[in-house]
Design brief:
Blueprint (H helix, E strand, L loop, with lengths): L5 H29 L3 H27 L10 H16 L3 H32 L4 H26 L1 H10 L3
Helix pairs in contact: 1-2, 1-4, 2-5, 3-4, 4-5
Length: 169
């Protein structure tokens, strides 16, 4: 693959984010089913539905650029997913698995927030109109909100007993 200009890089990064969002729909569904903490499970299910909307917004960005929507591998997501699956297979304790899921969710949200910040910065530099920038901003805002929810969940009283059980005193 050859990049000849800044727009090529933008489209490449957009295609990677499209891949990420598409893949996360399935991953979030799995984690919603496998998590035994109801709040965590419900949170993953809600974000799965939100992620489906985010996929549509990226398709809108491709349409605004008059390009077909295409997904390109994103090695960072593949690595996070590989680690999650490896841990999932090695863990038999439900509480420990819930904590792994919580951490995986937080890591993924950080990656996504950074990706959308970069895409928004590039879109601004390329002087794209709101048809391109608004969907990216909406997705970023949702990722940031989800991260805050996970962060709150990590300190919530209902999960405090899990932390107490899982960590040495």
């Amino acid at each position: 693959m050859e990049f000849t200009d800044f727009e090529d890089v933008f489209v490449h990064k957009l295609a990677q984010q499209y891949y990420i969002e598409q893949e996360l729909v399935g991953t979030l569904d799995e984690m919603a089913i496998n998590a035994t903490n109801d709040r965590l499970s419900d949170g993953f299910a809600d974000h799965r539905d939100e992620t489906r909307t985010q996929v549509g917004r990226i398709e809108d960005v491709f349409a605004a650029l008059d390009r077909p929507a295409e997904a390109r591998d994103a090695p960072i997501l593949d690595a996070l997913e590989e680690e999650r699956l490896e841990l999932e297979q090695a863990i038999t304790d439900d509480d420990l698995l819930n904590m792994v899921y919580l951490n995986a969710g937080m890591m993924t949200e950080r990656v996504e927030m950074t990706a959308y910040e970069g895409l928004s910065m590039m879109a601004d530099r390329l002087e794209y109109d709101r048809a391109v920038t608004a969907p990216l901003e909406s997705n970023y805002d949702e990722e940031k909100s989800t991260y805050r929810e996970l962060e709150t969940m990590a300190t919530a009283s209902e999960l405090k007993s899990l932390w107490d059980r899982l960590t040495p005193s």
